[in-house]
Amino acid sequence: MTMIVDVRQSFKSFVLDASFTSTGGVTALFGRSGSGKTSLVRAIAGLSKPQRGRIEIDGDVLLDTERGIFVPMHRRRFGYVFQEARLFPHLSVRQNLLYGKWFAPKSAQVENISHVVELLGIGPLLDRRPGNLSGGEKQRVAIGRALLSSPRLLLMDEPLAALDDERKAEILPYLERMRDETAMPIVYVSHSVAEVARLSDRVVMMSDGRVEISGTPSDVLSGSQVLATERREAGVVLSGTVEAIDSAHGLATVRLSSEVLVVSNARAQVGQSVRLHVPGRDVMLATRKPEGLSALNILEGQIAQMDAEGEGMVRVKIRCGEDVVLARITGLSVERLALQAGLPVYAVIKTVTLAR
Amino acid sequence: MDWLVLSEEEWTAVRLSLRVSSVAVLVSLPLGILVAYVLARGKFWGKSILNGIVLLPLILPPVVTGFLLLIVFGRRGVVGSFLADYLGIVLSFRWTGAALACGVMGFPLMVRSIRLSIETVDRKLEEAAGTLGASPLWVFLTITLPLILPGIIAGMILAFAKAMGEFGATITFVSNIPSETQTLSAAIYTFTQVPGGDVGAMRLTIVAIAISFAALLASEFMAYLVGRKVAVE
Q1: Does CATH number 2.40.50.100 belong to domain A235-354?
Q2: Confidence of residue B107 (pLDDT cuts 50, 70, 90)
Q3: Which domains does chain B have, with CATH numbers?
Q4: Which phi and psi angles does A328 have, rounded to 5°?
Q5: Facing residue for B233 by CB, picked from A73, A79, A89
Q6: Residues 58 through 117 of chain A touching chain B, CB cutoff 8 Å
Q7: Would you state the pLDDT for residue A110?
Q8: CATH number of the A3-229 domain
Q9: A62-82, pLDDT tens digit by residue?
Protein backbone atom coordinates (compact mmCIF):
# COMPACT_ATOMS: atom_id res chain seq x y z
CA MET A 1 0.00 0.00 0.00
CA THR A 2 1.21 3.48 -0.84
CA MET A 3 -0.64 6.56 0.27
CA ILE A 4 0.22 10.11 -0.67
CA VAL A 5 -1.41 12.93 1.26
CA ASP A 6 -0.92 16.61 0.55
CA VAL A 7 -3.61 19.01 1.72
CA ARG A 8 -4.07 22.66 2.49
CA GLN A 9 -7.10 23.99 4.26
CA SER A 10 -7.77 27.28 6.06
CA PHE A 11 -9.72 27.28 9.27
CA LYS A 12 -10.81 30.22 11.41
CA SER A 13 -7.78 30.11 13.68
CA PHE A 14 -5.13 28.18 11.79
CA VAL A 15 -4.02 26.84 8.45
CA LEU A 16 -3.52 23.16 7.79
CA ASP A 17 -0.78 22.64 5.25
CA ALA A 18 0.61 19.15 5.52
CA SER A 19 1.85 16.33 3.40
CA PHE A 20 3.17 12.87 4.11
CA THR A 21 3.38 9.46 2.52
CA SER A 22 2.76 6.07 4.01
CA THR A 23 3.76 2.67 2.75
CA GLY A 24 1.62 0.59 5.07
CA GLY A 25 1.97 -0.48 8.67
CA VAL A 26 1.05 1.94 11.42
CA THR A 27 1.69 5.59 10.67
CA ALA A 28 1.32 7.80 13.72
CA LEU A 29 0.21 11.41 13.35
CA PHE A 30 1.72 12.85 16.46
CA GLY A 31 1.64 16.30 18.04
CA ARG A 32 0.04 18.30 20.81
CA SER A 33 -3.67 19.08 20.71
CA GLY A 34 -4.46 21.83 18.24
CA SER A 35 -1.59 20.89 15.95
CA GLY A 36 -3.92 19.86 13.15
CA LYS A 37 -3.75 16.06 13.45
CA THR A 38 -7.52 15.62 13.58
CA SER A 39 -8.10 18.13 10.77
CA LEU A 40 -5.64 16.20 8.61
CA VAL A 41 -7.20 12.83 9.32
CA ARG A 42 -10.70 14.25 8.69
CA ALA A 43 -9.48 15.48 5.32
CA ILE A 44 -8.12 12.01 4.53
CA ALA A 45 -11.47 10.45 5.44
CA GLY A 46 -13.38 12.94 3.31
CA LEU A 47 -15.21 14.45 6.28
CA SER A 48 -13.88 17.83 5.25
CA LYS A 49 -12.99 19.25 1.88
CA PRO A 50 -9.59 20.94 1.64
CA GLN A 51 -9.27 24.04 -0.52
CA ARG A 52 -6.23 22.60 -2.23
CA GLY A 53 -4.59 19.24 -2.24
CA ARG A 54 -4.22 15.70 -3.42
CA ILE A 55 -4.87 12.38 -1.72
CA GLU A 56 -4.01 9.14 -3.43
CA ILE A 57 -3.96 5.54 -2.29
CA ASP A 58 -2.40 2.86 -4.50
CA GLY A 59 -2.89 5.03 -7.56
CA ASP A 60 -6.58 5.66 -6.77
CA VAL A 61 -7.07 9.43 -6.62
CA LEU A 62 -9.52 10.45 -3.87
CA LEU A 63 -8.87 14.16 -3.91
CA ASP A 64 -7.32 16.34 -6.55
CA THR A 65 -8.46 19.91 -6.37
CA GLU A 66 -6.72 20.82 -9.60
CA ARG A 67 -8.70 18.25 -11.54
CA GLY A 68 -11.82 18.81 -9.46
CA ILE A 69 -11.88 15.31 -7.98
CA PHE A 70 -13.46 14.79 -4.58
CA VAL A 71 -14.57 11.27 -3.69
CA PRO A 72 -17.26 11.47 -0.96
CA MET A 73 -16.50 9.71 2.32
CA HIS A 74 -18.86 6.78 1.79
CA ARG A 75 -17.01 5.77 -1.38
CA ARG A 76 -13.50 6.02 0.03
CA ARG A 77 -13.67 2.81 2.06
CA PHE A 78 -11.58 4.19 4.89
CA GLY A 79 -12.53 2.90 8.33
CA TYR A 80 -12.68 5.64 10.95
CA VAL A 81 -12.46 5.15 14.70
CA PHE A 82 -13.42 8.35 16.47
CA GLN A 83 -12.37 9.58 19.88
CA GLU A 84 -15.82 8.80 21.19
CA ALA A 85 -17.22 5.46 20.05
CA ARG A 86 -20.25 6.84 18.16
CA LEU A 87 -22.12 3.53 18.26
CA PHE A 88 -25.64 3.59 16.87
CA PRO A 89 -27.93 3.55 19.91
CA HIS A 90 -30.89 1.95 18.11
CA LEU A 91 -28.89 -1.08 16.98
CA SER A 92 -27.48 -3.97 18.99
CA VAL A 93 -23.73 -4.50 19.21
CA ARG A 94 -23.97 -7.20 16.53
CA GLN A 95 -25.95 -4.91 14.20
CA ASN A 96 -23.44 -2.14 14.83
CA LEU A 97 -20.62 -4.46 13.88
CA LEU A 98 -22.34 -5.57 10.69
CA TYR A 99 -23.47 -2.10 9.64
CA GLY A 100 -20.57 -1.45 7.28
CA LYS A 101 -20.87 -4.89 5.71
CA TRP A 102 -24.08 -3.89 3.91
CA PHE A 103 -22.22 -1.24 1.99
CA ALA A 104 -18.85 -2.87 1.39
CA PRO A 105 -18.32 -4.43 -2.04
CA LYS A 106 -18.74 -8.19 -1.75
CA SER A 107 -15.32 -8.81 -3.31
CA ALA A 108 -13.57 -6.73 -0.64
CA GLN A 109 -14.84 -8.62 2.38
CA VAL A 110 -11.83 -10.16 3.95
CA GLU A 111 -12.47 -9.84 7.67
CA ASN A 112 -14.97 -12.27 9.05
CA ILE A 113 -16.97 -11.37 12.08
CA SER A 114 -15.91 -14.26 14.26
CA HIS A 115 -12.24 -13.39 13.81
CA VAL A 116 -12.80 -9.72 14.64
CA VAL A 117 -15.01 -10.59 17.62
CA GLU A 118 -12.35 -12.93 18.93
CA LEU A 119 -9.56 -10.43 18.20
CA LEU A 120 -11.25 -7.69 20.21
CA GLY A 121 -12.76 -9.91 22.89
CA ILE A 122 -16.31 -8.65 22.37
CA GLY A 123 -18.08 -12.00 22.06
CA PRO A 124 -20.15 -11.64 25.24
CA LEU A 125 -21.39 -8.20 24.19
CA LEU A 126 -22.93 -9.11 20.84
CA ASP A 127 -26.58 -9.10 21.87
CA ARG A 128 -26.36 -6.09 24.13
CA ARG A 129 -27.24 -2.49 23.34
CA PRO A 130 -24.49 0.14 23.17
CA GLY A 131 -26.20 2.15 25.92
CA ASN A 132 -25.05 -0.09 28.74
CA LEU A 133 -21.49 -0.86 27.66
CA SER A 134 -18.47 0.58 29.46
CA GLY A 135 -16.27 3.13 27.71
CA GLY A 136 -13.59 0.56 26.88
CA GLU A 137 -16.12 -1.95 25.57
CA LYS A 138 -17.76 0.71 23.38
CA GLN A 139 -14.42 1.67 21.88
CA ARG A 140 -13.57 -1.97 21.14
CA VAL A 141 -16.92 -2.40 19.38
CA ALA A 142 -16.26 0.79 17.41
CA ILE A 143 -12.88 -0.57 16.30
CA GLY A 144 -14.51 -3.85 15.27
CA ARG A 145 -17.22 -2.00 13.39
CA ALA A 146 -14.62 -0.08 11.40
CA LEU A 147 -12.61 -3.25 10.68
CA LEU A 148 -15.68 -5.14 9.44
CA SER A 149 -16.56 -2.46 6.89
CA SER A 150 -13.58 -3.94 4.97
CA PRO A 151 -11.66 -0.69 4.69
CA ARG A 152 -8.44 -0.42 2.75
CA LEU A 153 -7.08 1.88 5.45
CA LEU A 154 -8.01 2.40 9.08
CA LEU A 155 -7.99 5.92 10.48
CA MET A 156 -7.90 6.12 14.25
CA ASP A 157 -8.36 9.55 15.79
CA GLU A 158 -7.11 9.37 19.39
CA PRO A 159 -9.19 6.26 20.06
CA LEU A 160 -7.93 6.07 23.64
CA ALA A 161 -7.97 9.76 24.57
CA ALA A 162 -11.43 9.69 26.13
CA LEU A 163 -10.60 6.71 28.34
CA ASP A 164 -8.94 6.51 31.74
CA ASP A 165 -5.58 4.77 32.16
CA GLU A 166 -7.14 1.49 33.15
CA ARG A 167 -9.33 1.37 30.02
CA LYS A 168 -6.34 2.39 27.89
CA ALA A 169 -4.36 -0.50 29.28
CA GLU A 170 -7.33 -2.74 28.50
CA ILE A 171 -7.45 -1.73 24.83
CA LEU A 172 -3.78 -1.32 23.90
CA PRO A 173 -3.07 -5.07 23.73
CA TYR A 174 -6.04 -5.45 21.34
CA LEU A 175 -4.62 -2.71 19.12
CA GLU A 176 -1.26 -4.48 19.08
CA ARG A 177 -2.91 -7.75 18.13
CA MET A 178 -4.87 -5.98 15.43
CA ARG A 179 -1.67 -4.49 14.03
CA ASP A 180 0.08 -7.85 14.09
CA GLU A 181 -2.77 -10.10 12.93
CA THR A 182 -4.35 -8.03 10.20
CA ALA A 183 -2.45 -6.50 7.31
CA MET A 184 -4.55 -3.35 7.60
CA PRO A 185 -2.61 -0.12 7.10
CA ILE A 186 -3.40 2.25 9.96
CA VAL A 187 -3.11 5.99 10.45
CA TYR A 188 -3.07 6.51 14.18
CA VAL A 189 -3.58 9.99 15.64
CA SER A 190 -2.21 10.53 19.11
CA HIS A 191 -0.53 13.01 21.39
CA SER A 192 0.82 10.31 23.69
CA VAL A 193 4.47 9.35 23.30
CA ALA A 194 3.84 6.05 25.03
CA GLU A 195 1.09 5.00 22.59
CA VAL A 196 3.06 6.11 19.56
CA ALA A 197 6.24 4.35 20.71
CA ARG A 198 4.29 1.19 21.39
CA LEU A 199 2.24 1.01 18.21
CA SER A 200 3.74 2.85 15.29
CA ASP A 201 6.17 1.93 12.54
CA ARG A 202 6.49 5.49 11.35
CA VAL A 203 5.85 8.81 13.02
CA VAL A 204 4.71 12.03 11.37
CA MET A 205 5.06 14.86 13.86
CA MET A 206 2.83 17.88 13.43
CA SER A 207 2.72 21.34 14.90
CA ASP A 208 0.72 24.42 13.91
CA GLY A 209 -0.89 22.60 11.01
CA ARG A 210 2.39 21.62 9.41
CA VAL A 211 4.50 18.47 9.39
CA GLU A 212 7.54 19.15 11.53
CA ILE A 213 9.43 15.94 10.97
CA SER A 214 8.72 12.37 10.00
CA GLY A 215 10.67 9.17 10.35
CA THR A 216 11.05 6.06 12.48
CA PRO A 217 9.77 6.25 16.05
CA SER A 218 13.28 6.12 17.52
CA ASP A 219 14.43 9.03 15.35
CA VAL A 220 11.42 11.24 15.91
CA LEU A 221 10.70 10.48 19.55
CA SER A 222 14.23 11.24 20.76
CA GLY A 223 14.53 14.49 18.82
CA SER A 224 14.39 17.89 20.43
CA GLN A 225 11.06 18.56 18.67
CA VAL A 226 9.38 16.03 20.87
CA LEU A 227 10.82 17.56 23.98
CA ALA A 228 9.11 20.76 23.01
CA THR A 229 5.88 18.85 22.50
CA GLU A 230 5.78 16.63 25.48
CA ARG A 231 8.74 17.00 27.72
CA ARG A 232 7.70 14.81 30.54
CA GLU A 233 7.25 11.70 28.49
CA ALA A 234 10.11 12.20 26.07
CA GLY A 235 12.91 9.70 25.94
CA VAL A 236 14.47 7.24 23.61
CA VAL A 237 13.21 4.18 21.84
CA LEU A 238 15.88 1.49 21.59
CA SER A 239 15.76 -1.58 19.38
CA GLY A 240 17.14 -4.92 20.42
CA THR A 241 16.59 -8.65 20.59
CA VAL A 242 15.51 -10.75 23.53
CA GLU A 243 18.51 -12.75 24.67
CA ALA A 244 17.22 -14.60 27.67
CA ILE A 245 14.08 -15.03 29.75
CA ASP A 246 14.00 -15.33 33.51
CA SER A 247 10.50 -16.62 33.98
CA ALA A 248 10.93 -17.02 37.74
CA HIS A 249 11.24 -13.23 38.08
CA GLY A 250 9.25 -12.32 34.98
CA LEU A 251 12.24 -10.62 33.42
CA ALA A 252 13.67 -10.54 29.93
CA THR A 253 17.23 -9.66 28.98
CA VAL A 254 17.40 -7.55 25.84
CA ARG A 255 20.58 -7.02 23.87
CA LEU A 256 20.81 -3.61 22.22
CA SER A 257 23.54 -2.57 19.80
CA SER A 258 26.20 -2.96 22.48
CA GLU A 259 24.47 -2.78 25.87
CA VAL A 260 22.16 -5.14 27.67
CA LEU A 261 19.00 -4.12 29.52
CA VAL A 262 16.73 -6.13 31.81
CA VAL A 263 13.03 -5.60 31.23
CA SER A 264 10.14 -6.85 33.27
CA ASN A 265 7.96 -8.64 30.79
CA ALA A 266 7.73 -12.37 30.63
CA ARG A 267 5.56 -12.40 27.53
CA ALA A 268 8.57 -11.86 25.27
CA GLN A 269 10.23 -14.82 23.56
CA VAL A 270 13.90 -15.49 23.08
CA GLY A 271 15.10 -14.21 19.72
CA GLN A 272 12.18 -11.81 19.32
CA SER A 273 13.08 -8.29 18.22
CA VAL A 274 11.62 -5.67 20.53
CA ARG A 275 11.64 -1.96 21.10
CA LEU A 276 12.21 -0.41 24.48
CA HIS A 277 10.98 2.96 25.61
CA VAL A 278 13.24 4.70 28.14
CA PRO A 279 11.69 7.99 29.36
CA GLY A 280 14.24 10.70 30.07
CA ARG A 281 12.67 11.53 33.42
CA ASP A 282 13.39 8.01 34.65
CA VAL A 283 17.12 8.12 34.00
CA MET A 284 19.44 9.26 36.83
CA LEU A 285 23.10 10.11 36.44
CA ALA A 286 25.99 9.24 38.77
CA THR A 287 29.65 10.14 38.45
CA ARG A 288 30.73 7.07 40.46
CA LYS A 289 29.42 3.55 40.03
CA PRO A 290 26.43 3.38 42.37
CA GLU A 291 26.10 0.47 44.79
CA GLY A 292 23.22 -0.81 46.84
CA LEU A 293 20.57 0.42 44.36
CA SER A 294 17.39 -1.40 43.45
CA ALA A 295 17.70 -0.36 39.81
CA LEU A 296 18.60 -3.30 37.57
CA ASN A 297 19.92 -1.32 34.68
CA ILE A 298 23.05 0.75 35.20
CA LEU A 299 24.91 1.66 32.01
CA GLU A 300 28.37 3.05 31.78
CA GLY A 301 28.86 5.82 29.25
CA GLN A 302 29.97 9.28 28.36
CA ILE A 303 28.05 12.52 28.16
CA ALA A 304 27.69 13.34 24.48
CA GLN A 305 25.63 16.49 24.63
CA MET A 306 23.79 18.74 27.09
CA ASP A 307 20.91 21.10 26.23
CA ALA A 308 19.06 23.39 28.58
CA GLU A 309 15.37 23.04 27.86
CA GLY A 310 14.00 25.74 30.15
CA GLU A 311 12.15 25.54 33.45
CA GLY A 312 15.47 24.63 35.08
CA MET A 313 15.68 21.28 33.31
CA VAL A 314 18.61 19.98 31.29
CA ARG A 315 18.51 17.23 28.71
CA VAL A 316 21.65 15.10 28.76
CA LYS A 317 22.50 12.70 25.97
CA ILE A 318 24.67 9.81 27.12
CA ARG A 319 26.50 7.57 24.73
CA CYS A 320 26.85 4.05 26.09
CA GLY A 321 28.84 2.07 23.57
CA GLU A 322 26.75 2.31 20.42
CA ASP A 323 23.49 3.11 22.20
CA VAL A 324 22.22 6.46 23.32
CA VAL A 325 19.98 7.25 26.27
CA LEU A 326 18.50 10.56 27.34
CA ALA A 327 18.36 11.83 30.91
CA ARG A 328 16.24 14.75 31.99
CA ILE A 329 17.74 16.25 35.15
CA THR A 330 17.69 19.58 36.96
CA GLY A 331 20.21 22.36 36.38
CA LEU A 332 21.16 22.11 40.05
CA SER A 333 22.26 18.50 39.61
CA VAL A 334 24.37 19.53 36.64
CA GLU A 335 26.13 22.13 38.76
CA ARG A 336 26.61 19.86 41.76
CA LEU A 337 28.10 17.02 39.74
CA ALA A 338 29.95 19.43 37.44
CA LEU A 339 28.60 17.59 34.42
CA GLN A 340 29.98 18.48 31.03
CA ALA A 341 30.31 16.88 27.64
CA GLY A 342 32.87 14.11 27.54
CA LEU A 343 32.58 13.27 31.23
CA PRO A 344 32.25 9.53 31.98
CA VAL A 345 29.00 8.82 33.88
CA TYR A 346 26.74 5.98 34.97
CA ALA A 347 23.16 6.13 33.74
CA VAL A 348 20.76 4.57 36.23
CA ILE A 349 17.61 3.56 34.42
CA LYS A 350 14.65 3.40 36.76
CA THR A 351 12.03 2.16 34.34
CA VAL A 352 12.19 0.72 30.90
CA THR A 353 9.13 -0.61 29.15
CA LEU A 354 8.71 -2.93 26.26
CA ALA A 355 7.38 -0.82 23.40
CA ARG A 356 6.76 -3.75 21.12
CA MET B 1 -79.69 2.53 27.10
CA ASP B 2 -81.22 2.78 23.63
CA TRP B 3 -80.06 6.35 23.30
CA LEU B 4 -76.47 5.11 23.09
CA VAL B 5 -77.04 3.18 19.85
CA LEU B 6 -75.71 5.05 16.85
CA SER B 7 -77.88 5.43 13.78
CA GLU B 8 -76.61 4.43 10.34
CA GLU B 9 -76.02 8.07 9.48
CA GLU B 10 -74.06 8.69 12.63
CA TRP B 11 -71.89 5.63 11.97
CA THR B 12 -71.19 7.03 8.54
CA ALA B 13 -70.02 10.29 10.08
CA VAL B 14 -67.71 8.44 12.48
CA ARG B 15 -66.22 6.26 9.71
CA LEU B 16 -65.82 9.29 7.48
CA SER B 17 -64.01 11.20 10.19
CA LEU B 18 -61.61 8.31 10.78
CA ARG B 19 -60.98 7.93 7.06
CA VAL B 20 -60.51 11.66 6.46
CA SER B 21 -58.10 11.99 9.39
CA SER B 22 -56.07 8.88 8.53
CA VAL B 23 -55.73 9.86 4.88
CA ALA B 24 -54.82 13.43 5.85
CA VAL B 25 -52.06 12.22 8.19
CA LEU B 26 -50.63 9.50 5.94
CA VAL B 27 -50.58 11.62 2.78
CA SER B 28 -49.02 14.63 4.47
CA LEU B 29 -46.42 12.53 6.35
CA PRO B 30 -43.75 12.21 3.60
CA LEU B 31 -44.03 15.91 2.80
CA GLY B 32 -43.98 16.70 6.51
CA ILE B 33 -40.74 14.76 7.03
CA LEU B 34 -39.17 16.43 3.99
CA VAL B 35 -40.15 19.94 5.08
CA ALA B 36 -39.06 19.26 8.67
CA TYR B 37 -35.69 17.99 7.41
CA VAL B 38 -35.20 21.01 5.19
CA LEU B 39 -36.11 23.38 8.02
CA ALA B 40 -33.89 21.58 10.52
CA ARG B 41 -30.81 21.09 8.37
CA GLY B 42 -31.08 23.39 5.38
CA LYS B 43 -29.26 26.70 5.06
CA PHE B 44 -30.87 28.72 2.30
CA TRP B 45 -32.38 32.08 1.59
CA GLY B 46 -36.06 32.25 2.47
CA LYS B 47 -35.97 29.62 5.17
CA SER B 48 -37.90 31.81 7.59
CA ILE B 49 -40.48 32.50 4.89
CA LEU B 50 -40.97 28.76 4.36
CA ASN B 51 -41.21 28.31 8.11
CA GLY B 52 -43.86 31.07 8.22
CA ILE B 53 -45.92 29.52 5.44
CA VAL B 54 -45.84 26.13 7.16
CA LEU B 55 -46.97 27.62 10.48
CA LEU B 56 -49.62 29.89 8.94
CA PRO B 57 -52.62 27.52 9.29
CA LEU B 58 -51.89 27.38 13.02
CA ILE B 59 -52.32 31.13 13.38
CA LEU B 60 -54.92 32.00 10.76
CA PRO B 61 -58.61 31.64 11.61
CA PRO B 62 -59.61 28.19 10.24
CA VAL B 63 -62.35 29.80 8.17
CA VAL B 64 -59.73 31.90 6.38
CA THR B 65 -57.68 28.77 5.63
CA GLY B 66 -60.81 27.06 4.33
CA PHE B 67 -61.66 30.02 2.14
CA LEU B 68 -58.12 30.14 0.72
CA LEU B 69 -58.38 26.41 -0.06
CA LEU B 70 -61.68 27.07 -1.80
CA ILE B 71 -60.08 29.79 -3.94
CA VAL B 72 -57.04 27.68 -4.86
CA PHE B 73 -58.45 24.13 -4.95
CA GLY B 74 -62.09 24.87 -5.80
CA ARG B 75 -63.54 23.92 -9.17
CA ARG B 76 -62.56 27.29 -10.64
CA GLY B 77 -59.41 27.70 -8.59
CA VAL B 78 -55.96 27.68 -10.18
CA VAL B 79 -54.96 24.27 -8.90
CA GLY B 80 -58.49 22.93 -8.61
CA SER B 81 -59.40 23.49 -12.26
CA PHE B 82 -56.13 21.92 -13.37
CA LEU B 83 -56.72 18.84 -11.20
CA ALA B 84 -60.32 18.53 -12.42
CA ASP B 85 -59.58 19.05 -16.13
CA TYR B 86 -56.44 16.99 -16.52
CA LEU B 87 -56.47 14.43 -13.72
CA GLY B 88 -60.18 14.17 -13.03
CA ILE B 89 -59.66 14.88 -9.33
CA VAL B 90 -62.31 17.03 -7.71
CA LEU B 91 -61.64 18.14 -4.17
CA SER B 92 -64.33 20.69 -3.41
CA PHE B 93 -67.41 19.25 -1.66
CA ARG B 94 -65.80 15.77 -1.57
CA TRP B 95 -64.35 13.80 1.31
CA THR B 96 -60.94 14.11 -0.34
CA GLY B 97 -61.29 17.86 0.03
CA ALA B 98 -62.06 17.38 3.71
CA ALA B 99 -58.84 15.31 3.98
CA LEU B 100 -56.91 18.12 2.27
CA ALA B 101 -58.32 20.71 4.68
CA CYS B 102 -57.54 18.51 7.70
CA GLY B 103 -54.05 17.76 6.37
CA VAL B 104 -53.28 21.44 5.91
CA MET B 105 -54.52 22.27 9.40
CA GLY B 106 -52.49 19.51 11.03
CA PHE B 107 -49.35 20.10 8.96
CA PRO B 108 -47.70 22.75 11.20
CA LEU B 109 -48.06 20.51 14.27
CA MET B 110 -46.58 17.53 12.45
CA VAL B 111 -43.66 19.47 10.98
CA ARG B 112 -42.85 21.13 14.29
CA SER B 113 -42.70 17.86 16.16
CA ILE B 114 -40.55 16.12 13.53
CA ARG B 115 -38.27 19.13 13.13
CA LEU B 116 -37.53 19.25 16.84
CA SER B 117 -36.60 15.59 16.89
CA ILE B 118 -34.33 15.98 13.83
CA GLU B 119 -32.54 18.82 15.58
CA THR B 120 -31.72 16.56 18.51
CA VAL B 121 -30.13 13.82 16.37
CA ASP B 122 -26.39 13.60 17.01
CA ARG B 123 -24.87 14.37 13.63
CA LYS B 124 -21.69 12.61 14.67
CA LEU B 125 -23.59 9.33 14.32
CA GLU B 126 -24.49 10.22 10.74
CA GLU B 127 -20.84 11.04 10.08
CA ALA B 128 -19.82 7.66 11.48
CA ALA B 129 -22.34 5.90 9.23
CA GLY B 130 -20.90 7.79 6.25
CA THR B 131 -17.38 6.56 7.00
CA LEU B 132 -18.77 3.02 7.12
CA GLY B 133 -19.85 3.35 3.50
CA ALA B 134 -23.47 4.50 3.77
CA SER B 135 -24.53 7.08 1.18
CA PRO B 136 -26.47 10.12 2.46
CA LEU B 137 -29.79 8.45 1.55
CA TRP B 138 -28.87 5.26 3.41
CA VAL B 139 -27.65 7.30 6.36
CA PHE B 140 -31.06 8.96 6.49
CA LEU B 141 -32.96 5.69 6.19
CA THR B 142 -30.89 3.61 8.63
CA ILE B 143 -29.74 6.18 11.19
CA THR B 144 -31.70 9.43 11.11
CA LEU B 145 -35.14 7.98 10.48
CA PRO B 146 -35.05 5.37 13.28
CA LEU B 147 -33.72 7.98 15.70
CA ILE B 148 -36.50 10.47 14.94
CA LEU B 149 -39.25 7.86 15.03
CA PRO B 150 -40.59 9.06 18.40
CA GLY B 151 -40.91 12.59 16.97
CA ILE B 152 -42.64 11.27 13.86
CA ILE B 153 -45.14 9.30 15.93
CA ALA B 154 -45.84 12.28 18.15
CA GLY B 155 -46.30 14.46 15.07
CA MET B 156 -48.70 11.96 13.50
CA ILE B 157 -50.81 11.75 16.63
CA LEU B 158 -50.96 15.53 16.96
CA ALA B 159 -51.96 15.90 13.31
CA PHE B 160 -54.54 13.11 13.66
CA ALA B 161 -56.08 14.76 16.72
CA LYS B 162 -56.15 18.09 14.92
CA ALA B 163 -57.83 16.45 11.92
CA MET B 164 -60.46 14.75 14.08
CA GLY B 165 -61.37 18.08 15.65
CA GLU B 166 -61.06 20.20 12.52
CA PHE B 167 -64.25 22.07 11.76
CA GLY B 168 -63.87 25.60 10.45
CA ALA B 169 -61.65 25.04 7.43
CA THR B 170 -63.46 21.83 6.48
CA ILE B 171 -66.97 23.27 6.57
CA THR B 172 -65.84 26.33 4.61
CA PHE B 173 -64.05 24.32 1.94
CA VAL B 174 -66.28 21.27 1.48
CA SER B 175 -69.45 22.23 3.35
CA ASN B 176 -71.45 19.80 5.51
CA ILE B 177 -72.92 17.15 3.23
CA PRO B 178 -74.15 14.04 5.05
CA SER B 179 -72.21 10.86 4.10
CA GLU B 180 -69.81 12.84 1.89
CA THR B 181 -68.23 15.62 3.90
CA GLN B 182 -70.09 15.50 7.20
CA THR B 183 -67.39 14.57 9.69
CA LEU B 184 -67.89 13.83 13.37
CA SER B 185 -67.45 17.45 14.39
CA ALA B 186 -69.77 18.67 11.67
CA ALA B 187 -72.38 16.08 12.67
CA ILE B 188 -72.25 17.19 16.30
CA TYR B 189 -72.63 20.78 15.16
CA THR B 190 -75.63 19.82 13.03
CA PHE B 191 -77.27 18.05 16.00
CA THR B 192 -76.89 21.15 18.13
CA GLN B 193 -78.67 23.20 15.49
CA VAL B 194 -81.91 21.17 15.59
CA PRO B 195 -84.39 21.01 18.48
CA GLY B 196 -83.94 17.81 20.56
CA GLY B 197 -80.57 17.05 18.98
CA ASP B 198 -78.74 17.04 22.30
CA VAL B 199 -78.95 13.29 22.73
CA GLY B 200 -77.40 12.67 19.31
CA ALA B 201 -74.70 15.22 20.00
CA MET B 202 -73.97 13.46 23.29
CA ARG B 203 -73.68 10.05 21.58
CA LEU B 204 -71.19 11.41 19.06
CA THR B 205 -69.31 13.29 21.78
CA ILE B 206 -68.79 10.02 23.66
CA VAL B 207 -67.47 8.46 20.43
CA ALA B 208 -65.14 11.43 19.93
CA ILE B 209 -63.79 11.07 23.45
CA ALA B 210 -63.26 7.33 22.94
CA ILE B 211 -61.37 7.83 19.67
CA SER B 212 -59.17 10.58 21.12
CA PHE B 213 -58.37 8.47 24.13
CA ALA B 214 -57.53 5.43 22.02
CA ALA B 215 -55.24 7.52 19.81
CA LEU B 216 -53.49 8.88 22.88
CA LEU B 217 -52.98 5.42 24.37
CA ALA B 218 -51.73 4.09 21.04
CA SER B 219 -49.20 6.89 20.79
CA GLU B 220 -47.99 6.31 24.35
CA PHE B 221 -47.58 2.62 23.64
CA MET B 222 -45.72 3.21 20.39
CA ALA B 223 -43.47 5.78 22.03
CA TYR B 224 -42.73 3.21 24.72
CA LEU B 225 -41.79 0.57 22.14
CA VAL B 226 -39.61 2.98 20.22
CA GLY B 227 -38.08 4.49 23.36
CA ARG B 228 -36.99 1.04 24.43
CA LYS B 229 -35.10 0.66 21.16
CA VAL B 230 -33.71 4.17 20.96
CA ALA B 231 -32.12 4.35 24.39
CA VAL B 232 -29.68 7.21 24.61
CA GLU B 233 -26.06 6.13 24.45
Answers
A1: yes
A2: very high
A3: 2-229 (1.10.3720.10)
A4: -115, 105
A5: A89
A6: 72-75, 77-80, 82, 84-90, 99-100, 102-104
A7: 65
A8: 3.40.50.300
A9: 999 999 999 999 999 899 999
